[in-house]
From TrEMBL:
Gene it is expressed from: ileS
Species in which this protein is naturally found: Dongia sedimenti
Motif 'KMSKS' region per record, residues: 606-610
EC number annotated for this UniProt entry: 6.1.1.5
HAMAP family: Ile_tRNA_synth_type1
Lineage of producing organism: Bacteria, Pseudomonadati, Pseudomonadota, Alphaproteobacteria, Rhodospirillales
Domain Aminoacyl-tRNA synthetase class Ia: 12-644
Protein name per Swiss-Prot or TrEMBL: Isoleucine--tRNA ligase
InterPro entries assigned: aa-tRNA-synth_I_CS (IPR001412), aa-tRNA-synth_Ia (IPR002300), Anticodon_Ile_BEm (IPR033708), Ile-tRNA-ligase (IPR002301), Ile-tRNA-ligase_type1 (IPR023585), Ile-tRNA_ligase (IPR050081), M/V/L/I-tRNA-synth_anticd-bd (IPR013155), Rossmann-like_a/b/a_fold (IPR014729)
Length: 940
C-alpha cells in the first residue's frame, strides 16, 4: 500500500544512473523544440532544507511536464559559490583557532573557500538527486569555475566599456561585523530598539522675521548621525507652528522662553514628549515659507569642526508628519534620501564613520567612538552624542523606540548607512532603467502580481552598488588612473583579463602584477588595480551569459523560457539577472518568471530550530519517500506560502495510497493483456466510452497545465478521477465484467481496452509528479516484454499519449451525468437498507425505482442493475409510496429496496432465481455457466 518508497526509490535512482536516463532523454529529444528552465543557483554552504526541496521539485515537475509534451527540456543545475556566507564560515574557523584572516595569504584563503563550496556542492547534488530531480548532474554550472569567472569579468567589462560602471561615494547599507556593503537583497528587517532624540538647531538666517531666535527641532532614531548633519529638511505643504515655551514639567530640558518650530499636526505629541506644560504660538505657516532659512549645527559652540559650516533648510518630498517633528535632519553620508537632497543642493557628503563602525579621527568630539562593536552590538557613540547635545543645550528630549530595522541576513547584526567609495552601475546611463521596465512589460509572470512588484522595484531603485570589500569572489577587474581618477577603458586590457581568468581563474588577479594585464602600453605605477570583489548577485545575475550562451554542446538557447524561484527573488536573482542582461544585451534573459511562496509549519509559523518545527526533507524521505514530498509540492498552491508538518504529510501519504492503489488495480486487471483483445471504440458500451471521454478531458487539462503551471488544480482533478470516477464508479461496476464475463465477451474486452488506455495515460500524466511510482508502475506492466516502441525502457522517455478526437463526446458526458444522479439515489437507498439490516450487500437487493417520464427517458438503453450493482432493478411509474428514499438535490427519482429472490451464484454473487437450473453447474447463474463452459472448452 505504501510502496516501501524509502527502499525502492534509491533502487530506481540507481537504475536511472546505470541507463544514463539524462543522456537518453537528450538523444530521444533531438530536433524537438527546446524548453529551457534556467536554474537559479542555490548557495553551496550546507544541507538542503525544505525550501530547497520545494524549489527543485517544482522545477523538475515543470521540466518533466514540458519533456512529455514533446519538447526537449534540457536542465542544467547550478550553484552559487562565492560570497560572504562561505567566507564567514572560513573566518569562523580561523577565529576558533585564534588566527587572523587578514594575516592569511589571500590565495590560501580563497583556496579554503573553494574547497568548502566544492564539498557542499557534492552533498547537495546527491540530496537533490534523491528528490528525483533529473538534470545534467555530471556537468552542472558553478560560479567558481574558470569559465564562469572569466565570463563574469567579461560582463563587468561590458559595463566598463559602455560607461555604465562608475565609482562613487554614496551612503550604502554597511555591515560592521562583515566589513562590507550589502545589497538590499542581503538585508532583512527585524525588531530593534533605537535611541531617539529631539534636537534644537538654532536659526541664524530666516525669511520670516517672527522666527528670529527660534530653533528648528528635529527628531531622529540615529543619534550617532548628528556629527554628519549638514542640513535640515521640511515639507513644502506641511503646516508648521512656532511656539514659545511658557511652562515645563519636572525633568524637562527646555526652558521657558525657548522658541521651537515644529509641524502643527505633531505639536501636541511633541509638547508631551518634551514635557512642555504651557506654550504660546508666535507664528504659523506652510513649509514653503521657510525657503532660505539657515540654522547652525548644535555642536558649533563646542568644536570648530562644526562651526565651519552652516546648516540650511531645504524642501524634501520624503518629509511627513507620521512621527517626530515634521523636520528631518539631513546627514548626506548616512541615508539615501539625505544623499539625494544633499547632492541636489550642492551639500558635501562627509566621511564620518570608518569600516569598523567607529568615527574617523577627524570627526570633532567623537573620534574613535563606535556606532556598533565588532560583534554588531550597540557601541558608545549614541551615548556620547546625547551627552554632548546636553552640554550644548541642544537636547530637547530623548527616549527609545522599538521598530523594524535593517539587519544582515547572515550575521543577523544591525546595519548602518555609511558613506563609502563603492562601484556602481548607473540606472540611467544607456537607458538601463527604461529598457528594464520595458522588458518587464513583455515578460509573462506567474502569478501575475509579480510583474507589478518587480516593476516598482526597478522604477524606484537607486544606482546598483556592485562592489564588496571582501576576498572570496570575482574581482572587479578594472584599473583607475591614479592622477585623473578616470577608469581605464581599453578593450585589449579587458581581453587579457578574460583570457587569463579562463585559463587560471580569478585568483590570478590577486596573484599577478598589474603589468600582466596592462601590457606594454601602460605604466602600472600610474594605475590603481581594484581589489574589491563583485556582488554575488551580479555573479548569479550573469549566469545566463555563461550557461545559456556558451553551452553549445548542450544546444541551449537564450533567452530562457522560464526563471523560477521564491518570491523574495524579485529583489534578488530576477532583479540582478534582468539588470545585467538589459545592461549588456538590451533584453531580459527570460520569457517568463514564476515565483513560489515560502515554507511554513502547520500553524503558519516560520520554521526555526528554537520552535522545533523544522521539517527536514531528508527525514521525510527516510520515513515516507521522495514521492510524498513531490505530491505535497504539486497538491499545494505554490503561489502562496506552503505549510508542511506531520499531519499534512500523513494526509499526503493517504492521497498517495489512493493513487498507488489505482495503479495496483490496473496492473492486476490487465494481467495477460494482449493487443488482440482491443475493442474498437464504436463497439464499446456507453459506460466505457464515457471513461474515454473523461480521458480526453483530462488530456486537455494535462497539456494546458504544462504551460499554465497550475499543478495543484491538475492534481485535484487526477486524484478525483482516480478516487471518484474510477475507484468508486467505473472499477466498482466493471469488476463484475472483469471477473465473471467470458474472456472473449465484448463487454470484458471493452473494459480491458479502456483500462489499458487509462494505465497508459495515468503513468504518463503522473510521471512528472510521482516520478518514482510512475516508473515502478510502468516497469510492472504485464506486456513490457512483448516488444514495443522506443522509449518504453522508462516512463520518462515517453511523451503524453495522443488522444483520438473521437473520444471526446460532450453529449454522452451530459447523459451520464444524469445517469450518475439516478445511481446516487439508488446507492443511497441501498446504504439505508444495509443500515436497517434489510440486506447485506447491494447484490442481495432488487430495488424498485420510481421515475418521472423525463428521468425514465434518461435511462434508455442502460441496465440500471449493472450500474447500481444489484441483482436486478424494477422501474416503476407513478407516485412512489411513503418512505421511499429520495435525495433533495435529485428530483424525479425515488427508490424502495426489496430483497432479491432466488439463490446466490457462487461465482458472481448475484442472487437470481435461475441459480440451480443447470445440471453441470448447479451453483451458477446462466451467465457464469456459459463463461465456465467457454473456459472449459478452451482448456480442452
Amino acid at each position: 500500500m505504501r510502496g516501501d518508497l524509502p527502499k525502492r526509490e534509491p533502487e530506481i535512482l540507481a537504475s536511472w544512473r546505470k541507463m544514463n536516463l539524462f543522456k537518453q532523454l537528450r538523444e530521444t529529444s533531438k530536433g524537438r523544440e527546446k524548453f529551457i528552465l534556467h536554474d537559479g543557483p542555490p548557495y553551496a554552504n550546507g544541507n538542503i532544507h525544505i525550501g530547497h526541496a520545494l524549489n527543485k521539485i517544482l522545477k523538475d515537475v515543470i521540466n518533466r511536464s514540458q519533456q512529455m509534451t514533446g519538447k526537449d527540456a534540457f536542465y542544467i543545475p547550478g550553484w552559487d559559490c562565492h560570497g560572504l556566507p562561505i567566507e564567514w564560515m572560513i573566518e569562523e574557523k580561523y577565529r576558533k583557532a585564534g588566527k587572523n584572516k587578514d594575516e592569511v595569504p589571500i590565495i590560501d584563503f580563497r583556496k579554503e573557500c573553494r574547497e568548502f563550496a566544492a564539498h557542499w556542492i557534492d552533498v547537495q547534488r546527491e540530496e537533490f538527486r534523491r528528490l528525483g530531480v533529473e538534470g545534467d548532474w555530471d556537468n552542472p554550472y558553478t560560479t567558481m569555475t574558470n569559465a564562469a569567472e572569466a565570463q563574469i569579468a567579461a560582463e563587468i567589462g561590458k559595463f566598463l566599456m559602455n560607461g555604465g560602471l562608475f565609482r562613487g561615494s554614496k551612503p550604502v547599507l554597511w555591515s560592521v561585523v562583515e566589513k562590507t556593503a550589502l545589497a538590499e537583497a542581503e538585508v532583512e528587517y527585524k525588531e530593534h530598539v533605537s535611541d531617539t532624540i529631539w534636537v534644537k538647531f538654532p536659526v541664524v538666517k530666516t525669511p520670516v522675521a517672527a522666527l528670529e531666535g527660534a530653533n528648528v527641532v528635529i527628531w531622529t532614531t540615529t543619534p550617532w548621525t548628528i556629527p554628519g548633519n549638514r542640513a535640515v529638511a521640511y515639507g513644502n505643504d506641511i503646516a508648521y507652528v512656532a511656539i514659545e515655551v511658557t511652562g515645563t514639567g519636572e525633568g524637562a530640558l527646555v526652558q521657558s522662553g525657548d522658541r521651537l518650530l515644529v509641524a502643527e499636526a505633531l505639536k501636541a505629541v511633541f509638547e508631551a514628549d518634551a514635557k512642555i506644560t504651557g506654550s504660546k504660538q508666535i507664528w504659523s505657516g506652510k513649509g514653503s515659507a521657510l525657503k532660505g532659512l539657515v540654522t547652525k549645527h548644535p555642536f558649533a559652540g563646542l568644536d570648530p569642526y562644526y562651526a565651519q559650516f552652516q546648516v540650511p533648510a531645504h524642501a524634501g518630498d520624503f518629509v511627513t508628519t507620521d512621527a517626530g517633528t515634521g523636520f528631518v535632519h539631513i546627514a548626506p553620508g548616512h541615508g539615501a534620501d539625505d544623499y539625494v537632497l544633499g547632492t541636489a543642493n550642492g551639500i558635501e557628503v562627509p566621511q564620518t564613520v570608518d569600516p569598523d563602525g567607529a568615527y574617523f579621527d577627524h570627526v570633532g568630539l567623537f573620534a574613535g567612538k563606535r556606532v556598533l562593536t565588532h560583534y554588531g552590538k550597540k557601541g558608545d557613540a549614541n551615548a556620547a552624542v546625547i551627552e554632548k547635545l546636553k552640554e550644548a543645550g541642544a537636547l530637547v528630549a530623548s527616549g527609545t523606540l522599538t521598530h523594524e530595522y535593517p539587519h544582515s541576513w547572515r550575521s543577523k547584526a544591525p546595519l548602518i548607512f555609511r558613506n563609502t567609495p563603492q562601484w556602481f552601475i548607473s540606472m540611467e546611463k544607456n537607458d538601463l532603467r527604461k529598457i528594464a521596465l520595458s522588458e518587464i512589460e513583455k515578460t509573462r509572470f506567474v502569478p501575475q502580481q509579480g510583474q507589478n512588484r518587480l516593476y516598482s522595484m526597478i522604477k524606484n531603485r537607486p544606482d546598483w552598488v556592485i562592489s564588496r570589500q571582501r576576498a572570496w569572489g570575482v574581482p572587479i577587474a578594472v584599473f583607475v588612473n591614479k592622477q585623473t581618477g578616470e577608469l581605464l577603458r581599453d578593450a585589449r586590457v579587458m581581453e587579457r583579463v578574460v583570457e587569463v581568468f579562463q585559463k587560471e581563474g580569478s585568483d590570478a588577479w590577486f596573484a599577478s602584477p598589474a603589468s600582466r594585464f596592462l601590457g606594454n602600453d601602460y605604466n602600472p605605477d600610474e594605475f590603481e588595480q581594484i581589489k574589491d570583489i563583485v556582488d554575488v548577485w551580479f555573479e548569479s545575475g550573469s549566469s545566463h551569459a555563461f550557461v545559456l550562451e556558451p553551452r553549445k554542446d548542450a544546444d541551449l538557447k537564450w533567452p530562457a523560457d522560464l526563471y523560477l524561484e521564491g518570491s523574495d527573488q524579485h529583489r534578488g536573482w530576477f532583479h540582478s539577472s534582468l539588470l545585467e542582461a538589459c545592461g549588456t544585451r538590451q533584453q531580459a534573459p527570460f520569457k517568463a518568471v514564476l515565483t513560489h511562496g515560502f515554507t511554513l509549519d502547520e500553524q503558519g509559523r516560520k520554521m526555526s530550530k528554537s520552535l522545533g518545527n523544522v521539517v527536514a526533507p531528508q527525514k521525510v524521505m527516510e520515513q515516507y519517500g521522495a514521492d510524498i514530498l513531490r505530491l505535497w509540492v504539486v497538491a499545494s498552491d505554490y503561489s502562496d506560502d506552503l505549510r508542511i508538518g506531520a499531519e499534512i504529510l500523513k494526509f499526503m501519504a493517504d492521497h498517495y495510497r489512493r493513487l498507488r492503489n489505482t495503479f495496483r488495480y490496473l496492473l492486476g486487471a490487465l494481467d495477460g493483456w494482449s493487443e488482440s483483445e482491443r475493442l474498437p471504440v464504436k463497439e464499446m458500451p456507453e459506460l466505457d466510452r464515457w471513461v474515454l471521454h473523461r480521458l480526453a478531458e483530462l488530456d486537455a487539462k494535462v497539456r494546458a497545465t504544462a504551460d499554465s503551471f497550475e499543478f495543484h488544480s491538475l492534481f485535484t482533478e487526477l486524484h478525483n478521477f482516480c478516487a471518484v470516477d474510477l475507484s468508486a464508479f467505473y472499477f466498482d461496476i466493471r469488476k463484475d465484467a472483469l471477473y465473471c464475463d467470458a474472456p472473449g465477451s465484448a463487454r470484458r474486452r471493452a473494459t480491458r481496452t479502456v483500462l489499458h488506455e487509462v494505465f497508459s495515460r495515468l503513468t504518463a500524466w503522473l510521471a512528472p509528479i510521482l516520478a518514482f511510482t510512475a516508473e515502478e508502475a510502468w516497469r510492472a506492466r504485464p506486456w513490457k516484454d512483448s516488444g514495443g516502441k522506443s522509449g518504453e525502457e522508462s516512463v520518462h522517455l515517453r511523451v503524453y499519449p495522443e488522444t483520438p478526437a473521437v473520444w471526446r463526446d460532450e453529449a454522452l458526458a451530459a447523459r451520464w451525468d444524469k445517469i450518475r444522479d439516478i445511481r446516487r439515489v439508488v446507492t443511497g437507498a441501498l446504504e439505508r437498507a444495509r443500515a436497517d439490516k434489510k440486506i447485506g450487500s447491494g447484490l442481495q437487493a432488487v430495488p424498485v425505482v420510481y421515475l418521472t417520464p423525463e428521468r425514465r427517458a434518461e435511462l434508455e438503453g442502460v441496465d440500471l442493475a449493472e450500474i447500481a450493482i444489484t441483482s436486478g432493478v424494477s422501474l416503476a411509474d407513478g407516485q412512489a409510496p411513503d418512505g421511499a428514499f429520495t435525495l433533495p438535490e435529485t428530483g424525479g427519482v425515488a427508490v424502495v429496496v426489496n430483497p432479491a429472490e432466488g439463490e446466490k451464484c457462487e461465482r458472481c454473487w448475484q442472487v437470481l432465481t435461475e441459480v440451480g437450473s443447470h445440471k453441470d453447474h448447479p451453483t451458477l447463474c446462466n451467465r457464469c455457466t456459459d463463461a465456465v463452459g467457454s473456459l472449459e472448452s478452451t482448456a480442452a
